[in-house]
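Duplicate of earlier report; Putative E3 ubiquitin-protein ligase UBR7 input re-posted below.
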Amino acid sequence: MAANEGDDATVSLVDVLEEDEELENEASAVLGGSDSEKCSYPEGYVKRQALYACNSCTPKGGEPAGICLACSYKCHEGHELFELYTKRNFRCDCGNSKFGDMECKLFAEKDKLNTENKYSHNFFGLYCTCDRPYPDPEDQIPDEMIQCIICEDWLHGRHLGCAVPESVELQEMVCESCMNKAPFLWIYAAHLAVPPTTKESPCKAEDGVKIEEENKEDEKDRGEEASTSPVDEKVKVNGTIGCKRRHQEMEEGSPAGSVECRLRELKALGKRRAEVGAVFWPSAWRAKLCLCNGCKKLYAEAGVAFLPDEADTVLAYENKGKITEQAGGTGGRDPLMSALDNLNRVQQLEIIHEYNDMKTELKDYLQRFAEEGKVVTPEDIRHFFEQQQTRKRRRANAGQYYCS
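Output:
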């Protein structure tokens, strides 16, 4: 029985280590793409970076402001910070006119305002259409929050107007509000997006069924039209016949072999889906967006010119962070995981007890930072382990004294 208990404990430890490693990798991916030592302001409007908002310096009722990772450590230590995850095309505000007399310790020479920055209620610690904080002490309903890739707000799964698909971490989401601000995305959604499972009223569900029936009728009609009208000569759009666009009008970077505007081609197919709820998109869907001049203008007018850029994605940013971390580390398998394989049962159990004690103490140590809204710095972690080493030496010395 002891052996079985040992087996369970050993497996449990490995599982815990793997889970901790996964969480560590996620944190490294978010922070690894940003510099923790230098203010990002000199880089201008950074394509994507980890950001924070300081409730101590710019509380609700004032002007929203965002600060980079390095400034959160060096300039706002001990302040109440909101972690904003990542934002695109943002320039660090630390020490500008929004912060009164406070100057940035890392880069003081800043313009008064960063006019191209975009702000939302996230900068005051509020999220979703319900405009609530996260975590929300008044919300007792377990729920996940998912970020819209356009407005970059975080929304509760139950407030998306649709069911959250499985493996959501591998997909991108556009909220219903942003879909309506860029309505051409509904055309792409009918062909490229994850099929919807609505959480709406029976009436809206019936609308979805009707649209599906209409799509089948359209497919039947297209089959009949195919015998009389070659697709490569003319395209039927909204009941009218439109001439093919000249190749010269297309951008040289258009998809290989593409002559038509892809959006127009998809629209001509007539397939639709209910324009309700958030839309989830599979990986690499952005590569299928049309790159003709007309569509690029359409993206710009809707404020989503970044969409065709696959390097804009959070996944691309996180991969950059992982590469940076691996380049600066030892690489390969976790040394602790490898060491376990070479230990006997007694040694493994000893490590289990030591690890569990350390994990409990670290959790209690970090809990104080969470309660005070403080950012945990590398110095804080270093201090924790120095205390651990001191206690370990005391125990060892005490043992030697009594043994002698």
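Residues 2-32 form the longest helix (31 residues).

Merging into the original ticket.
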